Structures are given as C-alpha cells and as structure tokens.
Amino acid sequence: MHAAVWCEALVAIKDDTGSGWRGERRWDAYTAPSPRAAIRWMRRSVQTVTPTLGRLQRRHVFDRWVHGYGSLEDFARLCRQRPCSLTVYRDGAEITWQARQVRLLLTF
Q1: Which of 5, 14, 53, 90 is deepest in the core (most CB within 10 A)?
Q2: Domain count, the chain
Q3: Long-range contacts: 36-39, Cβ < 8 Å, 24+?
Q4: Residue 11: pLDDT band by 50, 70, 90 thresholds?
Q5: What is the pTM of this model?
Q6: How far apart are CA 99 and CA 54, in angstroms?
Q7: Cα(18)–Cα(33) distance, integer angstroms
Q8: Average pLDDT estimate for 51-76
Q9: What is residue 105's three-state secondary structure?
C-alpha cells in the first residue's frame, strides 16, 4: 500500500428552474504523491478559474486561499489525514476542489 492524496474538481450547474442542482460532474482529477503536491495542484487549478469570478469572490479566493493562510490550513488538514475543500460560485455553477488521503495498491 502506498499513501497518496486524491484530488478532484467537481462542477455542479443549477437546473433550469433555479431551485436545485443538476448532478455533479468531475472536471479534473489528480493523484498527488503528497499533501504539498495536492495543495500545489489545487492552487494552480483554482488560479485558472479566478479571473472569471466576480471582483469580491476573486479577491477573497486570492487573499485567503491562493496567497493566504487558507491553503496552509488545508495543507495541515491533509497532513493529519483530514479532507479539505474549496468551493466557488460562477455563472450558475458551483466548482468544488477537494482532496483526501487515500491508500493505493501498487501492482507491477
């Protein structure tokens, strides 16, 4: 068994009535070899979306998570084998990045 961190970005889109969400869909995924690599992947992936966010949300994400203490807190959570996530909202869509520790069975 090999320890790793499973990372994924999920997208949910509001249904036509606006009362709920259509099903989630995986937008991207990555098996990180360490918590540090997982946070680096999440940070880069979040940065691809932030230019399209509204000014206040973009600033919050950059100040708190990309360049701030939020990613450090999530790194610490992953090191303690706790899951972490970050969600942003854009044009009727909810985008969530999440990471959690997993054990991989390596076969050759």
Answers
A1: 5
A2: 1
A3: 36/75, 37/5, 38/5, 38/7, 38/78, 38/99, 39/71, 39/74, 39/75, 39/78, 39/99
A4: very high
A5: 0.84
A6: 25
A7: 39
A8: 89
A9: coil
Length of the chain: 108
**What is the tens place of the pLDDT at every residue in 14-52?**
776 666 666 778 889 999 999 999 999 999 999 999 898
> 102 is written with which tokens?
């997993």
Angle between helices 69-79 and 35-49 (to 10 degrees): 140
Mean pLDDT over all residues of the chain? Answer: 88
Angstrom distance (rounded) from CA 72 to CA 3: 20
Neighbours of 70 (CB within 10 A): 16
Q: Which of 92, 82, 44, 83 is nearest to 65 (CA)?
A: 44
Write out the residue range of the structural domain in which residue 80 sits. Answer: 2-104
Tokens matching residue 49? 């979306």
Cβ pair 92, 11 in contact under 8 A: no
